[in-house]
Write a structure and sequence with these properties.
The chain is of the alpha/beta class and 264 residues long. 45% of the residues lie in helices and 16% in strands. It has eleven helices and ten strands. Helix 2 packs parallel to helix 3, helix 5 packs across helix 6 and helix 9 packs antiparallel against helix 10. The chain starts with 6 loop residues before the first strand and ends in a 10-residue tail after the last helix. The model has no long low-confidence stretch (mean pLDDT 95).
């Protein structure tokens, strides 16, 4: 469970809802929040009853980035400290999202900047309110992007456009983000919660193990060669064919009825 009310968590049916709850700080991300999100994602992976995850926020911002006002307390800094800080913080958070074995949906209700943008873009699907915007804010602070930004963006929109966003740090409105391929769908602000629920429920009703294997194949596809990718695909097929959902899908097809998946 979250360590305090700056991060809300609810299990609703088969959906794990993770909600950033520091609206007065534009949901700037603290270290305890990062640790709690990582824990909740690990719990979602381990729970057979959890079949989808939604990450969203309260207020007018999704996440304005890392909370630079309250960094982890350190004494005298030695070489390697920053590297360890990034690996144990921003990178570990984004990796947890990408490695979660359940589909993760971002419902972006407002500004997503810095690590907040990368938190959304690491998710498997991204819904955005019309008022949402995405900002590679690091250059404005004289910083190098962290949280796997230089890994995620080129894979989503290509290196030239990624460099444009990172070099200038301009805000990208939701509609433009959708055109670029950063966002799956843009909806009116008032419709975002209902649309997120509808998408999450569709995911939660799907063949959960097949979705997990599909996610792993797609995430690895741009980092490997063809023979390795095809070998992984064959292995995923082997693993999935042992699941009850695969057998249900085949049976439902032969019986000409909709399948009823149970995530196993």
């Amino acid at each position: 469970m979250p360590s305090n009310d700056t991060l809300l968590h609810e299990i609703d049916g088969n959906i794990s809802w993770i909600t950033l709850n520091r609206p007065d700080a534009m949901n700037a991300l603290t270290w305890p929040q990062r640790d709690d999100i990582i824990t909740l994602l690990a719990e979602a992976t381990a729970s057979p009853d959890t079949r989808a995850v939604v990450i969203t926020a309260t207020g007018k911002a999704f996440c304005a980035g890392a909370d630079l006002r309250n960094p982890p307390q350190t004494t005298d800094r030695i070489p390697g400290d920053i590297t360890r800080l990034i690996k144990s913080g921003a990178q570990r958070l984004i990796t947890a999202v990408m490695d979660c074995e359940k589909p993760v949906l971002a419902a972006v209700n407002g500004t997503a900047a810095g690590i907040g943008a990368h938190l959304a873009l690491a998710c498997d699907l991204v819904l955005a309110a019309e008022s949402a915007r995405f900002i590679e804010v690091f250059v404005r602070r004289g910083l190098v992007p962290d949280g796997a930004g230089a890994y995620l963006l080129p894979r989503l929109i290509g290196p030239q456009k990624a460099k444009e966003l990172m070099f200038f740090g301009d805000a990208v409105p939701a509609a433009t983000a959708q055109t670029l391929g950063l966002v799956n769908k843009v909806v009116p602000d008032a419709d975002l919660p209902a649309e997120a629920r509808a998408w999450a429920e569709r995911l939660a009703q799907g063949p959960t193990r097949a979705l997990a294997l599909t996610k792993a194949l797609v995430n690895a596809s741009l980092d490997t060669d063809r023979s390795t990718a095809l070998a992984a695909e064959a292995t995923a097929q082997e693993l999935n064919m042992s699941t009850a959902d695969a057998q249900e899908g085949i049976t439902a097809f032969t019986e000409r009825r909709p399948p009823k998946f149970h995530g196993r």
